[in-house]
Specification:
The complex is a heterodimer of chains A (about 270) and B (about 290).
Chain A lengths: L9 E8 L9 E8 L4 E5 L6 H9 L6 E6 L2 E2 L7 E4 L11 H15 L15 H14 L15 H13 L5 E5 L7 H18 L2 E6 L2 H7 L2 E4 L9 E4 L12 H13 L5
Helix pairs in contact in A: 2-3, 2-4, 3-4, 6-7
Chain B lengths: L7 H10 L12 H37 L7 H13 L3 H32 L1 H14 L8 H8 L3 H25 L3 H9 L4 H35 L8 H10 L4 H29 L5 H4 L1
Helix pairs in contact in B: 3-11, 4-5, 4-7, 4-9, 4-10, 6-7, 7-9, 9-11, 10-11
The chains are: A alpha/beta (about 270), B mainly alpha (about 290).
Chain lengths: ~270, ~290
């Protein structure tokens, strides 16, 4: 991949990351780029560093050395235009679905457009505007009837819909997801995967999803980054142009891709 | 393209077309929940009445069994209580005592909450200070009353300080444990929404520790009043402790003494009930799963 591409959404240059001064680096002079509008999956066995990479891009962890640039920003802290969705525990348990979806907008109103906590370019929405946006997203994600319930009283799928609504209400240009559907049952998972594909297309989102499920990686990512046991030095990338097309799940191409991933992960096809 | 997919823009337009100002007054399931809530309230009031009846019955039985001046009947105490409150200065003593407890609660909450949050969230601090807290927490702070009296003087400060000190440790420990139990995933995801320290405090730490503060208060309000009683034995001419021991007991005015005891009991009961109700309100979400 060309390092001169200045239009990249994510540009990782010479990234080295280790958890302790004497431990094996998870990434060693690792380079990787994501262009705007691309949909990526990151897959690998547990301990390969896929979640670490995502939290580095999200600005929740600092690189040992090297740079991570997202948009025009060199990442040192969370970037306001990046959205993050975690597997679980991301919602405030004491706040209703409505308040959880409104949380990001409230945070923006608290700080104003300071460039650190909220984008400098867009002024935070007025109270009324924020209310309208929350309503809109509750409806879009089909959780409007749950608005007065607490996260503990709704299903896992509805919780993840709430988390997605909360993140997308901030109109991110980059969406990072860490095992977002791993704790859901199969039908709910498939339902939400389809929803994400739909949203990716409608909002022209760049997205990176971390998963340990081979099928999920092949369904959601047109590009798949395969990580191995640390240290990761060279990105192993699988091109998967069929992803995001309805019905892809039942095509031979999908099965071929899954088998290719299995082989790369050292599993028998 | 998925045929069933509604383009987002259409959904947004449809959502905007509908008036959003007033959500429907009653959401599905709310009536049932309200009915159940009313039922529980009624049941609680019934239980309270029953408890009161048993309490009064025991009082009467004890008074009849002892048959001495030191143990009057409720019907002898109650008129004296009303009269002392209206004519005498029992009300003033009650106000003074209540003021001391409330000040102590305020001071304890203001100091213990942020420190507890800090200890719970910053592991290094907790590792350094937890053994110290574990050592100091079980010491009955009331034994330092003489020391506090000498150092802080005989005024209000020493009394408020002693009570605040006891409440401080109770709140500190509970808030610390609550803050420590916050999942790192929760903090991370709120940070990813742009939250810095200020927003984390406002939207995460504060709402997370508020129920903990109230739980600690509910448990320790009784102790606080007991210590107030002891503290009011020294260097003051105001407060229920002074009223009960010096003004009435030592002068063998037992009916008035019981009026004072009743006032102090009601003060404790009232504080407990206020804290309990507040705790129920802020802790609603904990029971949300059961109600549904």
């Amino acid at each position: 991949m060309s390092a001169t591409n200045t239009q990249a959404m994510i540009a990782i240059t010479d990234l080295t990351f280790r958890y302790g001064p004497r431990s094996t680096p998870v990434f060693d002079r690792f380079n990787w780029q994501v262009a705007p509008g691309e949909t990526w999956s990151i897959i690998g066995a547990s301990g390969c560093g896929k979640t670490t990479l995502l939290t580095l891009i999200a600005g929740l962890r600092r690189a040992t050395s090297g740079t991570i640039r997202v948009g025009d920003t060199v990442i040192r802290r969370p970037r306001p235009e990046t959205g993050l969705i975690l597997q679980d525990y991301g919602l405030l348990p004491w706040a209703t679905v409505w308040d959880n979806v409104a949380l990001g907008l409230r945070v923006r109103r608290l700080y104003g457009p300071d460039g650190t906590h909220a984008p400098r370019t867009a002024p935070p929405p007025s109270r009324q505007e924020a209310r309208r946006m929350v309503e809109q997203w509750l409806r879009r994600l089909n959780i409007a009837d749950q608005r007065n319930k607490y996260p503990g009283a709704i299903s896992g799928g509805q919780r993840q819909r709430t988390a997605i609504a909360r993140t997308l209400a901030l109109q991110p240009d980059l969406l990072l997801m860490d095992e977002p559907f791993s704790s859901l049952d199969a039908p709910t998972r498939e339902d939400l995967q389809n929803l994400v594909i739909q949203l990716q297309r409608e909002m022209d989102l760049t997205s990176v999803i971390v998963t340990h499920a081979i099928e999920e990686a092949a369904i959601l990512g047109r590009h798949i980054l395969v990580l191995g046991q640390p240290p990761n030095t060279e990105p192993v990338i699988v091109s998967n142009p069929g992803a995001g097309v309805p019905g892809y799940r039942s095509t031979p191409a999908f099965l071929d891709r899954c088998n290719e991933l299995r082989e790369l992960l050292g599993l028998k096809a | 393209m998925n045929d069933k997919a509604t383009p987002f823009t259409d959904a947004a337009r449809a959502a905007e077309a509908r008036p959003l100002s007033a959500p429907p007054a009653v959401w599905e399931g709310d009536t049932a929940t309200a009915k159940r809530a009313a039922k529980t309230t009624l049941a609680r009031l019934g239980n309270l009445a029953l408890a009161l009846a048993i309490f009064v019955a025991c009082w009467i039985a004890l008074a009849a069994y002892l048959d001495r001046d030191i143990m009057p009947y409720p019907w002898e105490v109650l008129p004296v209580f009303v009269e002392e409150m209206r004519e005498g200065d029992l009300w003033d003593h009650t106000v003074i005592s209540a003021g001391r407890v409330l000040q102590a609660i305020a001071v304890a909450v203001l100091f213990a909450t942020p420190i507890g949050m800090g200890l719970g969230q910053i592991r290094v601090l907790n590792r350094i200070f937890s053994p110290l807290i574990g050592l100091v927490h079980p010491i009955p702070k009331v034994v330092f009353l003489p020391v506090i009296l000498v150092i802080m003087g005989i005024g209000e400060t020493s009394k408020v300080f002693l009570i605040a000190l006891i409440l401080f440790f109770q709140i500190l420990v509970v808030v610390r444990d609550e803050a420590a139990s916050l999942r790192p995933e929760l903090i991370q995801s709120v940070r990813s929404l742009g939250a810095g320290r200020r927003a984390l405090f406002r939207y995460v730490y504060l709402p997370a520790s508020l129920p903990a503060v109230l739980t600690a208060l509910r448990v320790s309000v009784g102790t606080a009043i007991a210590v107030l009683f002891i503290a009011e034995q020294y260097s003051t001419r105001e407060g229920l402790g002074y009223y009960i021991v010096t003004l009435t007991w030592q002068r063998l005015r037992f009916d008035q003494m019981y009026a004072g005891i009743l006032a102090m009991s009601l003060l404790g009961l009232l504080l407990y009930m206020v804290v309990d109700v507040l705790e129920r309100i802020v802790g609603r979400w904990r029971r949300a799963g059961e109600l549904d």
